[in-house]
């Protein structure tokens, strides 16, 4: 068993809005959130006051403890206000991918039993359609403004009393992001107030922040990585978060230059752009002090090329997953130059790890031996919503969460993730479940069988690659037709990017797809 070398931190038994904004009054007029596109700025005093007013309006509207509110928005300065207002009113927040189709959104609404939606006007059509399909939604609110819908801006004028909700941080769910875990279709990950808040305290000694620090929030807040690293963590410590709605390289570089960004939390495709794109040379990025990459594996040579080009310490990595609130390992900011290339970091405070044999899961492995990574700690999720069997398959009776990732630890405690047991595809940090795409492909009348695996494209991104068996009646079915069929029915990040036609899908006697055989062909 591997244990963290850092001192334990006590559980943080606070609602997440208090754990993050408890020091907002002390930070006062320090900028908390800045819109990187138009410069709109909210101070800590305003974030504290505004989210309390919105919470009062939500409570007046009928939001009660135990309700679920779906937050369906790209990054905006209003996103944190909506999140903390909802939790202060007693609701759990299920975060929704802004590019989800109405059908995907409806599935999440139905599974989570969300009664309220907060969205933005450009996404209203999708939100309305999803609400119609799911049923049970009482009201759709908007962050900006739209005819026929109340906005958060209107709600700031509420004179209703601020709600006083008794939150049990150890039991009550604060966030309900959706994850595919190690297999299958998306499931609601129940993260309690204590789990998220304690994970912030675990991460703080290794990734400190303070007033004067400026981080650029381009990774989405709806994803647990963005929610933690770019929203909760910096706002808890008085840093300034500059918000961008999506990744556009020119806009991204201009924001670093114009807002004098000091820290970046990114995914590998952004590291690739910083390392290789010619546009980078046109901007002054000298304010940067560090870059951290997570959400997907980062090639050590690419990380080195990025740091050399920008004259920075080596790009640090972090490791975790939605089911772990999300962090378990990180390269400390003050140890980036000393960390071995390719490591995802050391165990954070209060966290234990085992590495077990792939052939004999009951056998623990030692230093330098590769096996499946198991994690135990206060950040392990409460479970999957309404799926006790899936929860039991993920977390054993001793509290060990089976990550599905394969790695090894060196003599100094640095973890290296080398492969995945799980079948998930990680496209630019977003999870794509092969089973979901396979089920969709089989609805095409011209497809007899299908299997999906992840393969790497020329940019080093893992992409969904479909192996398709044509129906005898559809010998002319083309690659383009298959890709278009999927593209019309899923969010853009889930699209099939490659198609190979085969005579048959390799399967075990049980019917399980033999993906390793397909990987050997690609």
Describe this structure as you would to a colleague.
- The protein is α/β, with parallel strands linked by helices and 522 residues long.
- The protein has 2 domains: 2-404, Rossmann fold (3-Layer(aba) Sandwich), CATH 3.40.50; 425-521, ANL, C-terminal domain (GMP Synthetase, Chain A, domain 3, 2-Layer Sandwich), CATH 3.30.300.30.
- It has 16 helices and 27 strands.
- Strand 21 (401-409) and strand 22 (415-420) form a beta hairpin.
- Helix 3 (44-61) crosses helix 4 (78-88), helix 5 (102-112) packs across helix 6 and helix 11 packs across helix 12.
- The longest helix is centred in the first third of the chain and has 18 residues, at 44-61.
- It is globular and about 65 Å long.
- The mean pLDDT is 94.
Short description:
The chain contains 16 helices and 27 strands.
Task: Summarize the SSE layout with pairings.
Layout (H helix, E strand, L loop, with lengths): L1 E2 L12 H6 L2 H4 L3 E5 L5 E3 H18 L6 E5 L5 H11 L3 E5 L5 H11 L3 E4 L4 H11 L4 E4 L9 H4 L17 E3 L2 E2 L7 E6 H11 L10 E4 L6 H13 L3 E4 L5 H11 L3 E4 L1 H9 L13 E4 L6 H11 L5 E5 L6 E4 L15 E2 L4 E5 L14 E6 L6 E2 L3 H7 L6 E9 L5 E6 L4 E3 L2 E3 L1 H8 L5 E10 L5 E9 L8 H9 L10 E4 L13 H7 L1
Parallel strand pairs: 2-12, 4-5, 4-6, 6-7, 11-12, 11-13, 13-14, 14-15, 26-27
Antiparallel strand pairs: 1-18, 2-3, 8-10, 9-10, 10-20, 15-16, 16-17, 18-19, 19-21, 21-22, 23-24, 25-26
Helix pairs in contact: 3-4, 5-6, 11-12
Major beta sheet summary: 9 strands, mixed
CATH topology of the largest domain: Rossmann fold
Show unreliable segments: none
Helix content: 25-40%
Q: What is the fourth-level CATH superfamily of the largest domain?
A: ANL, N-terminal domain
Strand arrangement, largest sheet?
3-2-12-11-13-14-15-16-17
| Radius of gyration using CA atoms only | 23 Å
Average predicted confidence as pLDDT: 94
Report the count of strand segments.
Answer: 27
Please give the CATH class of the largest domain: Alpha Beta
Proportion of β residues?
A: 15-25%
Task: Label the structural class.
Answer: alpha/beta
Count of domain modules: 2
CATH architectural label of the largest domain: 3-Layer(aba) Sandwich
CA-to-CA gap between the ends? Answer: 36 Å
* Overall shape: globular
């Amino acid at each position: 068993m591997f244990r963290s070398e850092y001192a334990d931190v006590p559980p943080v038994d606070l609602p997440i809005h208090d754990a993050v904004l408890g020091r907002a009054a002390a930070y006062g007029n320090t900028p908390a959130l800045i819109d990187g596109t138009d410069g709109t700025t909210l101070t800590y005093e305003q974030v504290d006051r505004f989210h309390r007013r919105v919470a009062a309006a939500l409570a007046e509207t009928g939001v009660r403890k135990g309700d679920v509110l779906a937050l369906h928005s790209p990054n905006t300065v209003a996103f944190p206000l909506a999140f903390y207002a909802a939790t202060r009113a007693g609701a759990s927040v299920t975060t929704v991918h802004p590019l989800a189709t109405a059908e995907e959104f409806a599935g999440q609404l139905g599974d989570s039993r969300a009664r309220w939606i907060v969205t933005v006007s450009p996404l209203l059509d999708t939100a309305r359609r999803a609400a119609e399909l799911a049923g049970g939604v009482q009201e759709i609110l908007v962050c900006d403004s739209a005819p026929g819908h109340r906005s958060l801006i209107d709600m700031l004028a509420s004179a209703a009393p601020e709600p006083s909700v008794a939150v049990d941080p150890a039991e009550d769910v604060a966030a309900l992001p959706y994850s595919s875990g190690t297999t299958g279709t998306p499931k609601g990950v129940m993260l309690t107030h204590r789990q998220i808040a304690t994970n912030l305290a675990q991460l703080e000694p290794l990734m400190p922040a303070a007033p004067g620090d400026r981080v650029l929030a381009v990774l989405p807040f709806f994803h647990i990585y963005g929610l933690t690293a770019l929203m909760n963590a910096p706002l808890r410590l008085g840093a300034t978060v500059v918000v961008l709605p999506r990744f556009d390289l020119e806009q991204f570089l201009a924001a670093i230059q114009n807002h004098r960004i000091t820290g970046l939390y990114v995914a590998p495709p952004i590291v690739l752009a910083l390392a290789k794109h010619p546009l980078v040379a046109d901007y002054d990025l000298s304010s940067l002090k560090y870059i951290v990459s997570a959400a997907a594996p980062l090639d050590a040579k690419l990380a080195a090329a990025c740091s050399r080009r920008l004259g920075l310490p080596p790009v640090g990595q972090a490791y975790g997953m939605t089911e772990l609130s999300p962090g378990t390992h990180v390269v400390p900011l003050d140890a980036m130059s000393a960390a071995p290339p390719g490591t995802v970091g050391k165990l954070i405070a209060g966290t234990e790890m085992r590495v077990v044999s792939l052939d004999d899961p009951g056998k623990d492995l030692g230093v330098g031996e590769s096996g499946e990574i198991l994690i135990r700690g206060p950040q392990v999720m409460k479970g999957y919503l309404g799926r006790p069997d899936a929860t039991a398959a993920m977390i054993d009776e001793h509290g060990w969460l089976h990550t599905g990732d394969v790695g090894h630890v060196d003599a100094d405690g640095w973890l290296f993730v080398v492969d995945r047991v799980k079948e998930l595809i990680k496209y630019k940090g977003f999870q794509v479940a092969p089973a979901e795409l396979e089920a969709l492909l089989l609805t095409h009348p011209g497809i007899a069988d299908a299997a999906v695996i992840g393969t790497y494209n020329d940019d080093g991104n893992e992409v969904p690659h479909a192996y398709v068996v044509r129906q005898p009646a559809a010998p002319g079915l083309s690659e383009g037709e298959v890709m278009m069929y999927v593209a019309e029915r899923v969010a853009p990040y889930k699209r099939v990017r490659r198609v190979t036609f085969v005579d048959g899908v390799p399967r075990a006697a049980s019917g399980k797809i033999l993906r390793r055989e397909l990987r050997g062909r690609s």
